[in-house]
Amino acid sequence: MPRTLNTSDMVTPGSLGPPPTKPTDGEPVGQSLLDGAPLSASLDTLIQHLVPTTDYYPEKAYIFTFLLSSRLFIEPQELLARVCHLCIEQQQLDQPVLDKARVQKFGPKLLQLLAEWTETFPRDFQEESTIGHLKDVMGRIAPCDEAYRKRMHQLLQALHQKLAAQGQGPEGVLGADKPISYRTKPPASIHRELLGICSDPYTLAQQLTHVELERLRHIGPEEFVQAFVNKDPLASTKPCFSEKTTNLEAYVKWFNRLCYLVATEICMPAKKKQRAQVVEFFIDVARECFNIGNFNSLMAIISGMNMSPVSRLKKTWAKVKTAKFFILEHQMDPTGNFCNYRTALRGAAHRSLTAHSSREKIVIPFFSLLIKDIYFLNEGCANRLPNGHVNFEKFLELAKQVGEFITWKQVECPFEQDPSITHYLHTAPIFSEDGLYLASYESESPENQTEKERWKSLSWRLPLWTVKMSVQALELPVCIFTPECETAPPVCAACKHS
């Protein structure tokens, strides 16, 4: 498992220094890649330092950083082919008679590298050709020790299980995309209010944490790079990697769905006393999410309560004790690039490092802000320097952020799952943007000319209530990047970024 990266992590101590390599791509003689943190190096040199030898093995931090960033320059299948070729060439594994003593020193290091690669980036091995490269290089050293063959079999079994598990991602958990129309609000047989399913804020916060951790578990570290992959100017005209970031996108959609679910639950009740009760319930749920360290659900709840159809319900809010809500809003205030939230996040991260229980280890970051940070890191620094070298300093920082996320997502949820609550969270009907306004205006009549005109427009255009079963069908998801929408990454669907 990759650790949080420091520059010192890149130094290989003692006798296991980097193998000597010839200068490539105009690299000056004597430049040492692992002499402290590397600033830059040619792609060939970086690949060379990934390859183990009889007396050298790369640092875990280097392996993770390079494997994470390399897909911007070379496809994983091609990288594996080059690594295997270098292993065969350097260890003379293509000779009729192998040096058994040499292979027995090299074999465990090769197996360790392949184990780390398949464990952290299993999707790199989805193509049959990559498995062929593994079998080829291991088949060459297996005659020197039968334990190698057994270990390789175990490695492939574990890889198969990981790929099978990741194939069962959360994309299909949300309800169908087709909208369902009603001439009135959804009947009770279809729409059950959340408080009828769960009336305890702490329990709901626990179940939201269950959903968050389950969805996070499916996101591979490579998706953070693939989300912003661009063409390598020194490569062909095609992007190096073209697979969709389905799990990352599904997680952003879950955030939007939770926003709309909160707004729907508040706008649904006919009486303002009931609506105020729902508002206060969600305030308590948000507070419990904050205490747990579930910042993503916290932000989704606050965003849902700040949506215009909800915030305009003045008579409802007049019956709400808002002091706790204002405190939570202050914690997630976007001022100063979310400085209050970042302070709270650092506190939760420190608590996680010193935790004595799995309950204290939970850190679920405000995910869209994490994506935004990675986006601006990617946009703010070039992948290559003018001399063509890979800007490895940039990828050290990228790996630090992604590696921290991986540590958080691997925490086991300590709370017992309640299937009835999680099922409701995933499948309960939610209103579209226009549907929320219709519900809001029916609950509390339009007060000004703008609202009256909108009410008239909606009543004419949408004579039926429209209930969306999935956030994918929503036309106007919450924009979590305001007020910086113009520079927000593509996940900001509200701004119509493509």
Automatic annotation (TrEMBL):
<dbReference type="InterPro" id="IPR000651">
    <property type="entry name" value="Ras-like_Gua-exchang_fac_N"/>
</dbReference>
<dbReference type="Pfam" id="PF00618">
    <property type="entry name" value="RasGEF_N"/>
</dbReference>
<dbReference type="InterPro" id="IPR001895">
    <property type="entry name" value="RASGEF_cat_dom"/>
</dbReference>
<feature type="compositionally biased region" description="Polar residues">
    <location>
        <begin position="1"/>
        <end position="10"/>
    </location>
</feature>
<dbReference type="GO" id="GO:0005886">
    <property type="term" value="C:plasma membrane"/>
</dbReference>
<dbReference type="InterPro" id="IPR023578">
    <property type="entry name" value="Ras_GEF_dom_sf"/>
</dbReference>
<feature type="region of interest" description="Disordered">
    <location>
        <begin position="1"/>
        <end position="31"/>
    </location>
</feature>
<protein>
    <submittedName>
        <fullName>(raccoon dog) hypothetical protein</fullName>
    </submittedName>
</protein>
<dbReference type="GO" id="GO:0007265">
    <property type="term" value="P:Ras protein signal transduction"/>
</dbReference>
<keyword id="KW-0344">Guanine-nucleotide releasing factor</keyword>
<feature type="domain" description="Ras-GEF">
    <location>
        <begin position="196"/>
        <end position="447"/>
    </location>
</feature>
<dbReference type="Pfam" id="PF00617">
    <property type="entry name" value="RasGEF"/>
</dbReference>
<dbReference type="InterPro" id="IPR036964">
    <property type="entry name" value="RASGEF_cat_dom_sf"/>
</dbReference>
<dbReference type="InterPro" id="IPR019804">
    <property type="entry name" value="Ras_G-nucl-exch_fac_CS"/>
</dbReference>
<dbReference type="GO" id="GO:0005085">
    <property type="term" value="F:guanyl-nucleotide exchange factor activity"/>
</dbReference>
<dbReference type="InterPro" id="IPR008937">
    <property type="entry name" value="Ras-like_GEF"/>
</dbReference>
